[in-house]
Every structure is written in C-alpha cells, then in structure tokens.
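Q: Could you fold this chain for me?
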Amino acid sequence: MSEPAVSIDLPFGAALAGLVLLAVVAARIGGLGVSRAVVTASVRAVLQLAAVSVLIAAVLRSWWATAAFITLMLLVAAATSARRITTLRLGRPAILPIAAGVVPVGVLVVAAGTVPLTEVAVLPIAGILIGGSMTATSLAGRRALDELRTRHGEYEAALALGFLPRDAALEICRPTSGRALVPALDQTRTVGLVTLPGAFVGVLLGGGSAVQAGATQLLVLVALLAVEAIAVGVTVELVAAGSLRPPSAIS
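A: Sure. Below is the predicted structure, expressed as structure tokens.
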C-alpha cells in the first residue's frame, strides 16, 4: 500500500503554523494591512475543512445530501462575492452570475459523460466550478463598480449625450471587465509549464496515469474558462442595470 501524500501529525501542524506566521510577517513588513485577515482565514480554513472531512463521507452516500451540500456551497459563494462587491444585502444578486456559469457548464460536463454520474465525482467538480465562478464574479463586480466611481464624469457625459443609464454604464465598465479572467487565462496558458494544478496532482495521487491526469486537468481548466466568462458577463450586466451597486450608489 502506498504512503499517504500528507501525514497528519505534529510536524504537519508545525508546518501549518510556520506558514501562517510567514504570511503574517510578510504582510506586516509589506504594510499590506491584512495580517489579521491571514490569521482568521487560516483558522477558518482549519475548522471548515475539519468539519467537511467529517461530513463528506455521509454526504456522498446520498444524491439528496450531495445536492444539498452543493446548494450550500453556492449560497456561501454568493454571500462571499456579495461582501466583496458591496454589502451582503445589496449584493444578493451575486448568486445569479455564479449560478449562470456553474449550472450550464456543470450539466454539459456531466451529460457528455466526461465525469461519472456519481456523488464522489460530481461534488468536487461542482466545488471547483463554484469556486471559479465566485472569484470571477467578485473581481468583475468590484472592478466594474470601481470604474463607475472613478470615471463618474464620463458616465454623466454619456448620459448627456443621450445614452440610457445601462448603456452609459456598459461603456465605462465593460472594456475592463475582461481583466477578471486574467487569473484563469494565465493558469490555462501556463499549465504544465509553471504549475501542476490540483486536479492533475489529485489523479496522480489517486493512482491514475499521467495521461488521465492531463485530460482531467484540461477538462477542469476549460470548464473554468467557460464558467468564469459567463459569470463576468452576467456580473457586468447586473452592475450596468443597477442591480449590483455600492452602498452609496450612483444616482
């Protein structure tokens, strides 16, 4: 029997603590102002993954439990993006771009037979897609609102020229919205040359061949590009329509 990839023991805990300390020190030296956020995020990750590790075996025994867990992931992703873009109350529509990307891409991936129709296969794929869609939604929404705020004079000028509010907002925020896809594009362009992402490594650790690992990673990366492109497009439309707006919204 092969050795586990990671041994959960005292050195493991010491390594985690050391890495958190290193991140905190780097943030303090750099004056980034996120030292406390690094610690709280790390503690939350430990607690959440511990809970998920306990629950996941029970969740994967039933399609109903798996579907409920995926729904929970979607709601948490929407709440996270809402807070990143504006506030939890004003950011409720953030669930729309996340779901708009995840649902069609997830259905296509499963319907094509590229992923087995089993709970243990569908759940992690759904998590990867939801995570990518959440990130793209947060980046696109934040950037679009920042553009409208900093270029408010151009927005007003477009209105004076007869543009409808939606069209004027799109003229300002749409050209830069594609930058939200830069992380996904860079990861796809450099896969295998700079990084070996999680899906590739996971298949190898699970006993799959290098070819199977490459095919799995390719599927994940292209699916993420599709998910995030849809999410960015829908997010920008919501910002332009005024459905996603800052607490002190442009009138």
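A (continued): Residues 119-150 form the longest helix (32 residues).
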